[in-house]
Specification:
Blueprint (H helix, E strand, L loop, with lengths): L9 E5 L7 H11 L3 E5 L2 H6 L2 H8 L2 E2 L7 H15 L2 E6 L5 H4 L9 H25 L2 E11 L13 H23 L2 E7 L13 H11 L7 H12 L10 E4 L10 H10 L1
Parallel strand pairs: 1-2, 1-4, 2-3, 4-5, 5-6, 6-7
Amino acid sequence: MGNQILKGKKGIIFGALNDQSIAWKVAETCHEEGAEFILTNAPIAMRMGAINELAEKTKSEIVACDVTLQEDMDKLVDKAMSKFGKVDFILHSVGMSLNVRKGKAYTDLNYEFMKKTFDISAMSFHRLLQTCYQKDAINEWGSVIGLSYIAAQRVFPDYNEMAESKALLESIGRSFGYHYGKFRKVRVNTISQSPTATTAGSGVSGFDAFMSYADKMSPLGNASGDDCANYCVSLFSDYTKMVTMQNLFHDGGFSYTGISQDVMDLFRENS
């Protein structure tokens, strides 16, 4: 058992596909800390994943939601409100690029795929927040987190147009964080996580090599999915009531390290 710092809190967790998913680990940790929640994912992802196992383990209900459809978002939020009244926390762990899946280079993108990427990976964050705002679905001092990545600020060539998606996600977090903070003191933040061996992350070309590089660059090493889950719980808790509109780097120090001794040693060995 955890410390029960989320005891009595209710929420919605997007994106749990399998036990490698950060959302899956967040759900497990939230459950250990005393929270109740609804699990949701796209219908196709739910058929591919093992979300029923997680639902049984955490005693949670599953509600399918295609985040690109307003009617699905309405149904999800309405269901959460009928079950819990208002919710206290939401995790948005959603992202997909058809251009990446199809191996399209950044200089040869399919723009219809790109629109879909933005809709799924970033606009859905605004759609979620706007739906909750208009339905007044989140309790005062509630907390919403979107998962991001440092490619929003720096160039990682193989991350493709997901970089723009994460930049948009972070901007939405800041803008809606202001409006929701004024309206209901709801906190909205994004977490820029280390590269993590999830199903989605592993689909990026050269991912294993980059994970190794990031681990050597970071003074604390890469932050694991379990570490990220703990960080999310801290932001869902009442201990972080005054943190909002932030993009929070959770990456072992990677984001502020110019070069590490480990990486320098590798260059010397190969020079």
